Amino acid sequence: MAELIKFTKNYDDLSTDKGYQFKFYCDICGNGYLSPFETSKMGMVGSILKGIGGLTGGALGRIGDATYDVQRAVGGKAHDTALKRAVKAVKPHFMQCSRCGKWVCKEVCWNEKRGLCVECAPKLEQEMAAAQSEATLGQMKKKVFKTDYTKDLNVVTEVVAKCPKCGAETKGGKFCPVCGAKLIREYKCLKCGAKLTDEMKFCSECGTKNPNFKE
Description:
By secondary structure, this protein is an alpha+beta fold. Helices cover 33% and strands 14% of the residues.
């Protein structure tokens, strides 16, 4: 009985008319190994015949094309033999998880202690480090959200973004930096909520001093 070939899903066949090469992937992380390139004798003969045929324009070129087409369409024993050698070369770097059936890289995605892949049996040290980092980040966010970053910021004052006269940006000033027009801002009295402007020294409703008034 012919020997069966493992790794039938997680590899790419990079073989060409010049030879054979395969790339094998880990089913979890996607990283993997590239097998050494093996020259195809049939492919080399086909290339030579195609080259001669290109010079002579005769039947040799057509023979070369036929050789190449057969190799590409069938693959054949030479292709299978090359794949077996590639599998044998990379197999020591992979382990198959008996729980989920995945082929995983031995270096990163295999839990040697548990004898399973890291999806079925996560490495506790890595999970602990990740959990600690996540908890630290969560606690840091809570502390940041509790901090008042606006205590010195007047959020009641109505800010005029553009000069009503010329349309220039005011950049938070009391006068337009382009035309010099006074920018009348309206805001609410902190005590009674009545409307105030920068020109009002006291609130007309409750008499509270306007903190934005400049003598």
